[in-house]
């Protein structure tokens, strides 16, 4: 892990906020197609496939991640890892903060 070097308050500016979630879910012949369709609908991808499990990666706003997880609750979720929110300003300049 890398230590945080600096932090900038973006609340007063226009910013882009994203989060990454990696979800491992149990699948069967009956559920696999429905899960894949849901992943495609949310523009996620499946970086790993096993016989009876899928690993799903999805990024977006925290609200999008929560909505996806709510819909996935109908399936057997084995594990979830989330990065938490990460953000940058939308303007063309580089954000600099005082240290």
Précis, in short:
It is elongated and about 50 Å long. The protein starts with 14 loop residues before the first strand and ends in a 10-residue tail after the last strand. With 99 residues, it is of the alpha+beta class.
What attributes characterize this protein structure?
Alpha-Beta Plaits; 36% strand; 99 residues; 2 helices
Description of the structure:
This protein has 99 residues and is an alpha+beta fold. The chain has a domain at 22-89: Alpha-Beta Plaits (2-Layer Sandwich), CATH 3.30.70.1150. Helix content is 21%, strand content 36%. The chain has 2 helices and 5 strands, in the order E-H-E-E-H-E-E. It has helices at residues 32-41, 62-72, and strands at residues 15-26, 45-49, 53-60, 76-82, 86-89. Strands 1, 2, 3, 4 and 5 form a 5-stranded antiparallel beta sheet that branches. Strand 2 (45-49) and strand 3 (53-60) form a beta hairpin. The longest helix is centred in the C-terminal third of the chain and has 11 residues, at 62-72. The model has no long low-confidence stretch (mean pLDDT 90).
What order do the helices and strands come in, and which of them pair?
Blueprint: E1 15-26, H1 32-41, E2 45-49, E3 53-60, H2 62-72, E4 76-82, E5 86-89
Antiparallel strand pairs: 1-3, 1-4, 1-5, 2-3
- How many whole angstroms does the radius of gyration measure? 17 Å
Tell me the total number of β-strands. Answer: 5
Structural class: alpha+beta
Distance between the termini: 21 Å
Largest sheet: 5 strands, antiparallel
Briefly note the CATH topology name of the domain at 22-89: Alpha-Beta Plaits
Shape assignment? elongated
> Which class of the domain at 22-89 in CATH terms?
Alpha Beta
Number of helices: 2
Helical proportion, percent range: 10-25%
**So, the CATH homologous superfamily of the domain at 22-89?**
ACT-like. Chain A, domain 2
Low-confidence stretches: none
Query: What is the H/E string?
Result: EHEEHEE
Sheet-strand content, in percent, reads 35-45%
Q: Mean pLDDT across all residues, rounded?
A: 90
- Quaternary state reads single chain
């Amino acid at each position: 892990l890398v230590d945080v070097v600096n932090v900038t308050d973006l609340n007063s500016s226009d910013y882009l906020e994203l989060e990454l979630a990696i979800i491992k879910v149990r699948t069967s012949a009956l559920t696999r197609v429905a899960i894949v369709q849901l992943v495609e609908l949310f523009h996620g991808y499946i970086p790993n496939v096993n016989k009876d499990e899928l690993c799903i990666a999805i990024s977006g706003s925290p609200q999008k991640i929560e909505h996806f997880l709510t819909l996935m609750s109908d399936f057997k979720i084995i594990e979830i890892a989330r990065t938490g929110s990460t953000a940058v300003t939308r303007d063309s300049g580089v954000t600099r903060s005082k240290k």
